[in-house]
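Help! Submission page says 'invalid entity' but I think these are all valid:
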Amino acid sequence: MTPDLNSHPRLAPGCRLNEKTKQPRTLLMPERALRLSGPSLEIIERCDGKRTVQQIVTELQSIYSKADPGKVEQDILGYLALLRDQRALDFS
Amino acid sequence: MTTPTSNPLALIAELTHRCPLHCVYCSNPLELQSRTAEVDTLIWSRVFREAGELGVLQTDFTGGEPLTRPDLAELIRAARAAGLYVNLITSGLPLDETRLASLIDAGLDHVQLSFQGSREDTAYEISGTKSHAHKLRVLEWLKPHRVAVTLNFVIHRRNIDQIEEMLALAESSNATRVEFANVQYYGWAFANRENLLPTREQLTRSIELLKRAEERLRGKIRVEFVVPDYYAKFPKACMGGWGRKLLLIAPNGEALPCHAARVIPGMLFDNVKDRGLRDIWEKSTAFRRFRGEDWMQEPCRSCDRRAQDFGGCRCQAFLLTGDASATDPVCSLSPLRSKVDAILAEINTPPTSEISGKPGWLYRPNPV
C-alpha cells in the first residue's frame, strides 16, 4: 500500500540513527541495521513526524533537480513503504 | 585465509548464566558458569568501548537472564556511551514497573520478551516456573514507553499448535515485531531434542499459518519465523559465518565465535580480561579455526553455495557427526544426511508423532 502523501512519517520507537561519528550513518532497529547514504539518508533525516510525505518529496525533488520528479516521488514512496513494512517508520 | 575480511557488526553479551527459569530448550551449555566467575561492570564497559571502536553496531544483552545482573542499568549506559544499539533478550523476570522505567531511561533501545507458550500451563511445563502471567504484566508496563518491543515465541512440538493464540497475544500488545523461533538443538535443547522436534505435519501447518499472518500484519507487525533446520534442504548460514559478523562474550569473559563453540574439542578461547577485543577478533585461534574456506571438506570445498551458507554450523556438524569440519549434515548434499533423516523418521512415526502427555524433561538448573 502506498504511503499517504498527507501523512507524517516518523521513526518508530527503538529505531534511530547511530551516534558514533566515525562510522557511516546507519539506521538501527531490532536485530537489523541499514547503511544510509545520499538519498536514503536525506529521506530518513526528514522523517521527523512534522513533515508530510509530500513535503519530503518536494524537498528531495529540489535537491535532485536534474532527476525526473516523477521518478523521485516513486522512489521515495517505495522506500517509505519498505521502511514501514520493516516497522522502522510510523505514519500519523 | 584466517584473518577477518571485515569487522564484527554485533556483540552478544552473555552477561550471566543465572536465570529464574529452567527452560528445557535452553541453548546455554550444559556446564553453566557460576556467579562468582562473572566479569564485572568495569570490564564490560571497556569491552563495549572496544566494540564501538571495532565498528560493532549492536549489542544483545542475554544470558541466562540479564535481569539478574544488579548492574544492568549501568551496563546499558556504558553500551550506549560506546555508541552501541542495545537489545535486551529477556524472560521479563525478575522485574517491576519502576526498574523497567529505569532500564529504558538508561538508554535501552529494544526489549525482546520471550514466551514459552500462549498459556500458563504450557509455559509452566516448558520453563518449570510460573512466569506467564508476569510476562503479560510486563507487556502492559511497556506500553507507555518509547522502546522497540519484540515478542519471541520459542516453538517446538509441545506448543506449535498454539500459533493462532500466540498471534492474538502479539496483536493485543504494542509489539512491532514477533518472532516464532523454532528451537535449535544445542545445550539443553539437544538433550531434550526427542521431545521438542515438531512433526512434519505440525511444521507444514505452522508455516502456512505464519505466511498468511505475515501478509495480514504487514505494515503493523513484522512477523519473522525460523524453521528447524533438520527439516531444511540447506543449512543455515550460522552466525553469518564463523568469525565474520558476530562475537560472543561468555559470563566469565571468554570470547567465542558462537554460543555453542565449547562443544568442539580442542577449542582454546581468549578472555577479554587479558586481551583487547580487536586483538581477539583478528588473532584468536578460536576465531581463526573455521574462518574462510581452507578448513572445508568436500562437498563444501567446491560447492556453489559455500559463500552463502559457509557449510552450515560447525557445532552442529560436530554434535551430529563427530567431526567439526564436516558438512553440516542437515544439508541435503551431505553424505551423512541420513543421520538427520533417521532422527526425523523417529519423530514422525507413532507413538512419538501422536500427541501425548507430558514427557520426561531435563530441566535447566540455576547455577550457584
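Support: the input was valid. A stray whitespace character was the problem, and the output above is from the cleaned input. The beta strands of chain B are 10-14, 58-62, 85-90, 110-115, 148-155, 177-182, 222-226, 246-249, 255-256.
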